[in-house]
Amino acid sequence: xxxxxxxxxxxxxxxxxxxxxPVIAPVQKxxxxxxxxxxxxxxxxxxxxxxxxxxxxxxxxKRYFLPYAETLATFTVDKGxxxxxxxxxxDRRQVLFGLHACDINALNKLDKVxxxxxYPNPFYAAKRxxxxxxxxxxxxxxxxxxxxMGTDFALHxxxxxxxxxxxxxxxxxxxxxxxxxxxxxxxxEPGHDDHERYKAVVAEKNGRFQAKVDSSDLTKILDMExxxxxxxxxxxxxxxxxxxxxxCPTCYCYGVEENVDLDLTGAVKTRRLHxxxxxxxxxxxxGHNFRPHSHARLKYRYYHKHRGFVEAxxxxxxVGCGRxxxxxxxxxxxxxxxxxxxxxx
Amino acid sequence: xENRLPFIDxxxxxxxxxxxxFTSFEYTLPAEITSLYALTPTETLYQIRIIDPTxxxxxxxxxxxxxxxxxxxxxEAPFSIxxxxxxxxxxxxxxxxxxxxxxxxxxxxxxARVGLSGPFGTHFPVEEMVGxxxxxxxxxxxxxxxRSPLSAVLENRSNYGxxxxxxxxxxxxxxxxxxxYEEWRRxxxxxxxxxxxxGPGWQGPVGLITEVLKERLGQAGSLATGTxxxxxxxxxxxxxxxxxxxxxxxxxxxxxxxxxxRMHCGRGKCCRCNIGSTYTCLDGPVFDYWxxxxxxxxx
Lengths: 345, 299
Ligand SMILES: Cc1cc2nc3c(=O)[nH]c(=O)nc-3n(C[C@H](O)[C@H](O)[C@H](O)COP(=O)(O)OP(=O)(O)OC[C@H]3O[C@@H](n4cnc5c(N)ncnc54)[C@H](O)[C@@H]3O)c2cc1C
Ligand code: SF4
Ligand code: SF4
Ligand code: FES
Known about the structure:
Bound molecules: flavin-adenine dinucleotide, iron/sulfur cluster, FE2/S2 (inorganic) cluster
Number of strands of chain B: 14
Largest sheet of chain B: 6 strands, antiparallel
Order of helices and strands of chain A: EHEEEEEHHEHEEHHHHHEEHHH
Structural class of chain B: alpha/beta
Number of helices of chain B: 8
CATH superfamily of the largest domain in chain B: Nucleotide-binding domain of ferredoxin-NADP reductase (FNR) module
Strand order of the largest sheet of chain A: 1-9-8-7-6-2-3
Distance between the termini of chain B: 60 Å
Oligomer: heterodimer
C-alpha cells in the first residue's frame, strides 16, 4: 500500500483535475427542525460546494449505481415483429468524492451479489467499473454501528482514501489512476509523525462509537427466534412505507415493468427499486401473497440482510450506517430490532 | 496525462472476457410461437421455437427448469418448460391466463414473436433416479412442470421401475393433457386421476390427491426402498403429500418439489423470489424436501 501526505490547500487542486469528469460528492441540502445541517450526494462543479465535514447523507449514493428507475431496454415494434435495444446507461467515468468507509463497503457487498455471482448484472457492473472513488475517514455519529458490522474501515473497492490530520490529509493510494493524479499535486512521503497522527485520529474515531449490534451467532438466533413476538411488535409499528430500503446503501431488490409507447411503435422496460416492506413484494399470480403481514415482511428484510447474505457471503448485507433508523417514521432501528429479537421478545 | 478518466466498456466488445456472462442478462433470444392450442378455456399450450438455429441447438435444459418469456411493453414472466429436453430450443409451454402478459399471450396468433431467456433454476435429477420407482404427484397446474421429467422417463422407460402419476384437479373440465393419458398408460405408467368435484360423465374417483396416494401406499402404508417422488402443486398440497410420503418412509432427499414465487429476473438479482433468504430462481424452483425443511416460510 502506498501512502502520501499533502497540505489541505492541495485538495481543491486535486478536485479541479478530477472535475474533468462528473464529480459526485456530499453537499448540504438544508437544515432540520433543530438547525442541524442535512447532507446528500449530488453532482458538484465547484470545490466550495463540497462538504467534506458531512456526518452522513440522507440517501446513500445509490442512485448513481442503482438508479431508482432505470431503462433496461427499449423496443421498436412493427408489424413484422420487434427489436430490442439494451443500453447500460453509462458512457463516462464518474468520480465519487468523499465516500465514507461504510458506503464503500456497501459497494463491495453489492459487488459480491451483483457482479461476482451467476448472471452478473451488466447495468450495475458498468457503473461500478466506471467509478473513481475517493474515500474519506468519517466522524462516527451516535447511531452509527458500522463497527459492529466490521465495515468501519474499507480495505478495497476505492482508488484513494483520505484521513484528515488537521492541517493535511493522509492519503492511502490504491489504484494507478489515483497515483497519477497524486503526482500532479504537491505531496510528500509520510514520516513517523504522520503515522502517529494518523493512528491518533483513528483511535479518536474508534472511541466515538456508541450504537452496537451483537451479531455473534445471529444466523442461528434468527432461526430460533423466527416466531418471536418481537417481530409482531415491530411489524405493528412498521408503516410498510419502504423508506428504509430507499435510503439504504445495500438494498438492491427491484421490480420490472413494461410500457407500450403511446404511438404503439415502441415499448420501454423499466427496472424500479422495490422494497420488501411494500405489501405487493411477494404477491404471485392468482393474488396469493406469501407475506401478507407487515411483520412477515419486516422479518424478511432482516433475514435477507443478517442471515441469507451471511450464509452466502460470510458477511451481513448491512454496513451499519444507521440511515434506515434515522429515516423511519416509526422509529425502527436495526440495533433495537436485533437486540429485542436476541432477547426473544 | 488526460484529466478525463478513460471509459471502461464492461462488455469489452466482441470476444470481451466477460461478455458472455454479462449478455446473459437482458439480452433475450428472439423466438417465435409456432402454434397455440387451447387445452381448456384458461390454459393454452404454446409451441415456441428460438429462431436462430444455432442458438436453438445450443439451448439445452434439464427437466424442471424454467424460461423467462417476454413480450415488449406487456411483461416478462417465468414459465416451466413442459417439453422434453431432447427438443432443445423448440419448447412447449402451458400457460394459464391470470393477468396482463398471460392474457395477451392467449390472444396472439401463430408466428408471433416473443423473447426467451434461460433456462434457469434447478432441475429434477431424473438421471439419478435410474433404476428406481418414481411417484409423480401433481395438483392443478403442477402437471405442467411434471411433463418434462415425465417425457425424459418415457424416452428411457426401461431405465426406471414402477412409475405412478397421481394427478388431481378441481373438476374434470380443468384436467390438462387429457389427450396424452392413453399414451402414458401405453408406456406402462400407472395413472390415477382424481377431481375435487365430479362433473357430467365423470366416472373416476372424487376426492383429494392424498386419498389416491393413500391407496397407492396400501395397507402397509409404506413405499419400497428405492422410490423417488416428484411433487408439484399448490402449497397446501405439498404439506399433506410430503407428510404422507415421509410417514411412508421416503427420505427427504428423495422427494422433490417445485416451488413458485414471484420473479422479476430469474437470475438471483431482484430478490422477489426469495424464501426466507434463498433464491427460488437459483437454488430452486426444484428443491429436495430436506432443503424445504430447512427453509423458513417455504410451504
Ligand atoms: C418457476 C415458475 C414457473 C412457472 N411456470 C408456469 C407455467 O408453466 N405455466 C403458468 O401458467 N404459469 C407459470 N408460472 C406462473 C407465471 O409466472 C405467472 O402466472 C405470470 O407471472 C403471470 O403474469 P401476468 O403478467 O399474466 O400477470 P400480472 O398481470 O402481472 O399479474 C397477475 C398476478 O401475477 C403476479 N405476478 C406478476 N408478475 C409475476 C412474476 N414475474 N412472477 C410471478 N408472479 C407474478 C402478480 O402479482 C399478480 O398477482 C410459473 C411461475 C414460476 C415462478
Ligand atoms: S421499518 Fe420504518 S422505514 Fe421501513 S417500511 Fe417500516 S416504517 Fe417504513
Ligand atoms: S440496513 Fe440500515 S443501517 Fe444497515 S446498511 Fe441499510 S440503511 Fe444502513
Ligand atoms: S427472480 Fe429475481 S432473484 Fe429470483
